[in-house]
Design goal:
Low-confidence stretches: none
Helix content: under 10%
Largest sheet: 3 strands, antiparallel
CATH topology: N-terminal domain of TfIIb
Distance between the termini: 26 Å
Mean pLDDT: 92
Bound molecules: zinc ion
Number of strands: 5
Number of domains: 1
Strand content: over 45%
Radius of gyration: 14 Å
Strand order of the largest sheet: 3-4-5
């Protein structure tokens, strides 16, 4: 079920369709670096329940 999320006191709103209901998931983002190594960082993503736009946030 899509739900609302708040970051730093501000509600997450889709910039594309203004929807505020999202599905949360986690995944890896790969960063290319020098010498051809790749580094993966854990991130969480929120998929807009209306248009499917995906918002990514890196986990610290
Ligand atoms: Zn949307």
């Amino acid at each position: 079920m899509p739900e609302e999320f708040v970051f730093n006191g501000r509600r997450l709103v889709c910039p594309q369709c203004r929807n505020n209901q999202f599905e949360r998931a986690e995944g890896l983002i790969e960063h290319a670096s020098f010498f051809g190594f790749k580094r993966s960082r854990l991130a969480e993503n929120y998929t807009c329940g209306e248009c499917g736009y995906v918002h990514w946030f890196l986990l610290k």
